[in-house]
UniProtKB/TrEMBL annotation:
This is Iron-sulfur cluster carrier protein. Belongs to the Mrp/NBP35 ATP-binding proteins family. ATP binds at residues 103-110. It comes from Pedobacter cryotolerans. GO terms for molecular function: 4 iron, 4 sulfur cluster binding; ATP binding; ATP hydrolysis activity; ATP-dependent FeS chaperone activity; metal ion binding. One of its GO terms (biological process) is iron-sulfur cluster assembly. Keywords: ATP-binding, Hydrolase, Iron, Iron-sulfur, Metal-binding, Nucleotide-binding. Residues 5-75 form the MIP18 family-like domain. It holds the Pfam family ParA.
Length: 357
């Protein structure tokens, strides 16, 4: 007769390679049920985007068969409960705020933010996206919401909350929703900072696992406001491979690592890494240089999250209001899945509670 204790004891031999603890100590094994030689339990991961899902599942099965009974039939149900940084009481229902940043404009920051958001939402995470790009908010275009206006609701204590607009399962707010798309808004520093703060504090976000923030390019007032006003889980840095872009990216990255800002850099994404013609998908032309993003990540000792090729369909999808990662058949959906997985994994590592150590 197999017992729950035997199963748990076997699973103590399976370690989460990132969190460096066994799954039982990490409290990731739930609902163990045993009937004859049938062993069922739930494996609760720290993100639905976990890239090690299959590996951990196999390791659990092997551990039960090896340490308990070779003929055990193991049935594992995988769920997730996204973790949050240790000491955040502010914006409590938002577990992880992720800044998407770039040193230069036009390198694909909004494209990366939108596609990562879509990817995580498709995997079952609760996702929000704030477009804080005061110079050219692109989220309304990328989500087919040009001209959309969010509504508001009154709370019981008389406060007015903006209701984010929901599209593809993502809650969205953009500065672009509050301005005429054809009229440039000459934001002055304090005005822009206040508007951004409102998008966080005066909106009805509900519960979110990940809230992405598409920052303006460079390093400026908005960056300072956000990093000093809210608990940030980390920053994703987007660059292209050219030296001119990398030079600016270095500055952006160094800003997050300054002791006064001190925000974890979750990793570098290299966009427009190479050109691939649709008719010759095997051919890769490194027109802007090779491995610049990877080398930058190595130099600053931060993870390299992945490469995204330069392909026409990305622009077309963005312009049509459907981020490319929504198309599961596109190789880009796979690229974004890998990047999202590595990013979420990095957040989970940073969020390990000291109590577990
Ligand atoms: N990998 C890619 N392949 C082809 N086109 C791309 C790629 N990445 C981004 N683009 C296109 O490049 C343009 C700029 O991208 P995006 O708006 O994401 O950049 P950004 O860094 O957010 O710019 P901004 O500085 O305006 O905020 C868009 O038209 C987008 O569709």
């Amino acid at each position: 007769m197999i017992t729950t204790e035997q199963v748990l004891s076997a699973l103590r031999n399976v370690e989460d390679p990132d969190l460096k603890k066994d799954l039982v100590t990490l409290n990731m094994i739930k609902d163990v049920k045993i009937e004859d030689n049938k062993v069922a339990f739930t494996l609760e991961l720290t993100t639905p985007a976990c890239p090690m899902k299959e590996m951990l599942k196999n390791a659990c099965t092997n551990a039960v068969k090896h340490f308990v009974a070779a003929d055990a039939e193991v049935n594992i149900n995988i769920t997730s409960r996204v973790t949050k940084p240790v000491d955040t009481t502010q914006l409590n229902a938002i577990k992880n705020i992720i800044l998407v940043s770039s040193g230069k404009g036009g390198v694909g920051k909004s494209t990366v933010a939108s596609n990562l958001a879509v990817t995580l939402a498709a995997q079952g995470a609760k996702v929000g996206l704030i477009d804080a790009d005061i110079y050219g908010p692109s989220v309304p275009i990328m989500f087919g919401l040009v001209g959309a206006k969010p509504s508001a609701r009154e709370t019981e204590d008389g406060k007015t909350l903006i209701l984010p607009i929901e599209k593809y399962g993502i809650k969205l707010l953009s500065l672009g929703f509050f301005a005429d798309p054809d009229q440039p808004v000459p934001w002055r520093g304090p005005m822009a900072s206040n508007a951004i703060k409102q998008l966080f504090n005066d909106a009805d976000w509900g519960e979110l696992d990940y809230l992405f923030v598409d920052l303006p390019p460079g390093t400026g007032d908005i960056h300072i406001t956000i990093t000093q006003s809210f608990p940030i889980a980390g920053a994703v840095i987007v660059t292209t491979p050219q030296q001119v872009a990398l030079a600016d990216t270095r500055k952006g990255l160094a800003m997050f690592q300054m002791p006064s800002i001190n925000i974890p850099v979750l990793g570098v994404v290299e966009n427009m890494s190479y050109f691939t013609p649709a008719e010759l998908p095997e051919n890769k032309y490194y027109i802007f240089g090779k491995d610049g993003g990877k080398e930058l990540a190595t130099k600053y000792n931060v993870p390299f999250l992945g490469e995204i090729p330069l392909v026409q369909s990305i622009t077309a999808a963005g312009d049509n209001g459907e981020p490319i990662a929504m198309d599961e058949t596109s190789p880009l959906a796979q690229a974004f899945k890998e990047i999202a997985g590595k990013m979420a994994q990095q957040i989970s590592i940073n969020n390990v509670q000291p109590a577990n150590c």
